[in-house]
């Protein structure tokens, strides 16, 4: 099963057949919405709108842990995602698709891990996106959409929901970052903790606030997000149809050797809570 997490502007699934709704309860609360499961040319897809069907969850309070856990519980092994982002470069205008390979985290008020209450996991995260999935998404965008596509780049993730100040925007530009958004973290971290391959295609909606003749407005963001929706869905559909069956990579063993707490010291309730995620590493 392939997971698809839709960002701003994408609140409904791809043209799926034999659809059903899955209401998944998790130890971390309810997901953003019931998960739509269906088939695209024989491939099973699980779709989830990150912000809810009516965009009722802000970037800070979206239930990221419940979303990733629910997809894991349904049997999802690989996640394709989308994000609306601002551009920090003149040559990345609105309606460009960017498939980033790095993240710079500036968030402050989000739960970043599944592992708490008596268990500590120190997991490597040098390359936050699955390199195989990232490459496949970029190739799919090039082949399936008419949009300008850029592979690689650093996504600055800010807390929001407010946009940047001009000073912040200039700072991120001076640091050499490429795009800016509000939802890459903790989603990418949680997907890695769940040992799921994860990559995203982002759609540029604005120039942030660094550009002298540009201001970020909700109207502009929504208009460009709507224009990007077609290209993003074309990309995701192509990626699903052509996704290699063999996907052995480091993502699938990311937690191995990373549990720092002796098994006998982990509280029983915590052990039950994270069994889906690390049970295989805790069993004698």
Summarize the structure.
The protein is of the alpha/beta class and 284 residues long.
Provide a descriptive summary of the structure in words:
28% of the residues lie in helices and 22% in strands. Helix 3 links the parallel strand 9 and strand 10. With 284 residues, it is α/β, with parallel strands linked by helices. It starts with a strand and ends with a helix. Strands 1, 2, 3, 4, 5, 6, 7, 8, 9, 10 and 11 form an eleven-stranded mixed beta sheet that branches. It has one domain: Nucleoside phosphorylase domain (Rossmann fold), CATH 3.40.50.1580. Helix 2 crosses helix 5.
What descriptors fit this protein?
Rossmann fold; eleven-stranded mixed beta sheet; 22% strand
Structural class: alpha/beta
Shape: globular
Mean pLDDT: 94
- Return the CATH architecture: 3-Layer(aba) Sandwich
Helix and strand string, N-terminal first?
EEEEHEEEHEEHEHEHHH
Count of the domains: 1
Instruction: Give the strand tally.
Output: 11
Using only C-alpha atoms, the radius of gyration works out to 18 Å
Which sheet architecture does the biggest sheet show?
Answer: 11 strands, mixed
CATH class: Alpha Beta
Q: Which stretches are low in confidence, meaning pLDDT under 50 for 5 or more residues running?
A: none
């Amino acid at each position: 099963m392939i997971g698809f997490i839709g960002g701003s502007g994408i609140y409904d699934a791809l043209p799926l057949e034999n659809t059903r709704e899955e209401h998944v309860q998790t130890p971390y609360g309810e997901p953003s919405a019931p998960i739509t499961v269906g088939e695209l040319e024989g491939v099973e897809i699980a779709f989830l709108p990150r912000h809810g069907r009516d965009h009722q969850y802000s970037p800070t309070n979206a239930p990221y842990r419940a979303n990733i856990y629910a997809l894991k519980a349904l049997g999802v092994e690989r996640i394709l995602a989308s994000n609306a982002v601002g551009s920090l470069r003149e040559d990345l205008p609105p309606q460009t698709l960017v498939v980033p390979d790095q993240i710079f985290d500036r968030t402050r008020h989000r739960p970043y891990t599944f592992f708490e209450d008596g268990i500590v996991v120190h997991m490597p995260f040098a390359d936050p996106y699955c390199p195989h999935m990232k490459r496949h998404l970029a190739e799919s965008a090039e082949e399936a959409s008419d949009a300008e596509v850029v592979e690689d780049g650093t996504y600055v993730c800010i807390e929001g929901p407010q946009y940047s100040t001009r000073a912040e925007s200039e700072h991120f530009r001076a640091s050499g970052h490429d795009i800016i958004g509000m939802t890459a973290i903790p989603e990418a971290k949680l997907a890695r903790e769940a040992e799921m391959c994860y990559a995203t295609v982002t759609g540029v909606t604005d120039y942030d606030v660094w550009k002298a003749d540009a201001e970020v407005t909700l109207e502009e963001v929504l208009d460009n997000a709507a224009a990007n929706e077609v290209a993003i869905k074309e990309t995701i559909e192509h990626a699903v149809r052509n996704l290699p069956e063999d996907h052995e990579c480091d993502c699938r063993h990311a937690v191995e050797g990373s549990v720092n707490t002796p098994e006998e010291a982990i509280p029983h309730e915590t052990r039950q809570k994270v069994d889906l995620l690390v049970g295989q590493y805790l069993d004698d």
